[in-house]
Each structure stands twice: as C-alpha cells, then as structure tokens.
Backbone:
C-alpha cells in the first residue's frame, strides 16, 4: 500500500512538472497577455490626451477676463474663477493616469522578463533536476530538492503570475468596466469639444466688446444717441457673457463627473485588481515556498521501510 502510494505521488508530481514545462514553452498566453496590456496602455494614453486637451483649455480660460464698463454699466467677468475645481480635478486625473501607466509598464516589464530565454532555461533545468532526484534514488538529497523546488516556485511566479493577472483583469474589465469606460470617454470628449467652443465664443465676444469700446471713443462717447446705443450694446453683452459662463460652468461640472468615473475605472483596472490578483498569487506561491516537499516524499519512504 505504501509503495503504490509513493509511486502514485511521484507520477503525479512528474506529470505536473512536465505540464508546467509544456505550458512554459507555449507563447500563445504571452501574446494574448501582451496584446491586452497594449490595449490597456492605449486606453490610458487616449484618455490622458483628453485630459491634456482640457488642461490646455483651462490654461486659456484662466487668462481670460472680460470687462464691459461704459458709464452706468459695470460688468467684470473673471472667467478663470469658475475653472478652479476643474483644474484641481484634471491635476488629480493626470496623476491617476500616470500611476495607471506606470502600473501597466511594470506589468509589461515583468511579463517580458518571464518570456526571456534564461528564465525558460532555468525553469526547464529546475524541473529536470527535480525529476532526476525524484526517480534516481542515488541522487536524492532532501535539502537540495527543497532548494531547487523553491527556485522553481520563483520561476513559476515570474513565468505565469503576470499573464494570469492580465487575463483575469481583462475578463473583469470586459464584463463590468468596459461599457462604463466607453460611455464616460465619449461623454468627456463631447464635453471637451463643447467647452472649447464656449471658450472661443467668450473670447470672440470679448474681442467684439473691445471693438465697440474703441469705436465709441472715435465717434464721440458723450453724444446722447451714441451713449444709449453703447449702453444697450454692453447690456446685451453682459447677458450674453452671463449665459456663456453659466453654460461653461455646467459643462465643467459634467466633465468632472465623467472624469470621476474614469478615475474609478482606471484605479480599479490598473491598480486595485492587479494588486488583488497578485496578492492571491503571492499567498499561493508563499505557501509553496514554505512547504517541505522533500519531507512530504520522505514520509512515504519511511513508511515503506
């Protein structure tokens, strides 16, 4: 009974080791994982480009002030004051996108490290030595077996941990996050375009106000008829500016909501999920690292004697 149990365990361990060697030599999982990382990085870059565009618009807005101050009508629109919340949000968004890109870059580096020939060769040699010690009784050495086994666990982690993290992460993204990402990205792009248009209108109205002011001095500002025409024009400008700035503020609020959604998605996709899956793999591999595989096999040998 003891001999058959020992033989069964040796066969099972040998079969698992050979399966790992075969899986390690296959590149299809690596290609799929690499493609998924490239797609995730492309998403991060495209969204970061939108954030940079918004940052450029904010820079323009912050330097825009509109004055409409003829006699009896005083209007001062400091446009930059309404973009402070948006500016803070874009800065945080840029930081999140940077961390997301760094996370994806680290995963890409570890993925390629696991695909290198030295890692594959050392992995195969570790399996070979374990098989030889397992089946050739003269080569059996418990401490050496455990030492090589621990090395094998490290190589296993380098070879398979990141691909499994990427595939698990992509599955969760496709199932739960992708619809919200596409919706928020499209809405943010639209809001960015609308904000640019409104800013252009505000600056165009400011230019029109300056032209009217210059014309009023040339034609005689204190002529009664011209005075009331100028006054009416500035009153219309005041209403137009107020409407434009209110609309601009609303668009900024909408954009902030979409940015918050994208921040949540990228934190979950690029930071939280990889760390959770990686933590699970670390717990698993840590258990193997602290296991006494040689002692487990020697128990059966001791029973047989």
Residues:
């Amino acid at each position: 009974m003891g001999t058959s149990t020992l033989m069964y365990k040796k066969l099972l361990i040998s079969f698992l080791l050979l399966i790992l060697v075969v899986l390690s030599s296959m590149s299809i999982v690596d290609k799929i994982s690499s493609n998924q990382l490239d797609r995730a990085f492309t998403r991060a870059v495209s969204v970061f480009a939108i954030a940079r565009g918004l940052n450029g618009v904010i820079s323009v807005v912050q330097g825009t002030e509109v004055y409409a101050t003829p006699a009896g009508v005083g209007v001062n629109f400091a446009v930059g004051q309404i973009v402070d919340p948006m500016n803070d949000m874009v800065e945080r968004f840029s930081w999140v996108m940077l961390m997301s890109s760094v996370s994806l870059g680290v995963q890409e580096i570890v993925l390629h490290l696991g695909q290198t020939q030295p890692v594959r060769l050392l992995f195969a040699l570790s399996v070979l030595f374990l098989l030889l010690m397992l089946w050739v009784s003269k080569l059996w050495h418990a401490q050496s077996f455990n030492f090589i086994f621990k090395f094998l666990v490290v190589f296993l982690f380098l070879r398979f941990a990141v691909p499994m993290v990427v595939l698990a992460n992509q599955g969760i993204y496709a199932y739960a996050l992708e619809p919200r990402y596409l919706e928020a990205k499209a809405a943010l792009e639209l809001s960015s375009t609308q904000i640019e248009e409104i800013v252009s209108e505000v600056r165009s109205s400011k230019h029109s106000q300056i032209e009217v002011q210059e014309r009023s001095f040339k034609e005689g500002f204190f002529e009664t008829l011209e005075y009331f025409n100028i006054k009416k024009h500035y009153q219309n400008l005041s209403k137009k500016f107020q409407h434009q700035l209110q609309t601009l503020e609303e668009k900024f609020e909408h954009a902030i909501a979409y940015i918050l959604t994208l921040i949540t998605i990228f934190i979950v996709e690029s930071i939280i999920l990889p760390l959770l899956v990686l933590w699970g793999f670390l717990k698993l591999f840590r258990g193997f690292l602290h296991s006494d595989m040689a002692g487990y096999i020697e128990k059966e040998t001791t029973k047989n004697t």
User: Anything to note?
Assistant: Residues 165 and 280 are 10 Å apart (CA to CA). The first helix runs from residue 2 to 25. The chain has one domain: 29-293. Confidence is low (pLDDT under 50) at residues 70-76, 210-228, 301-305.
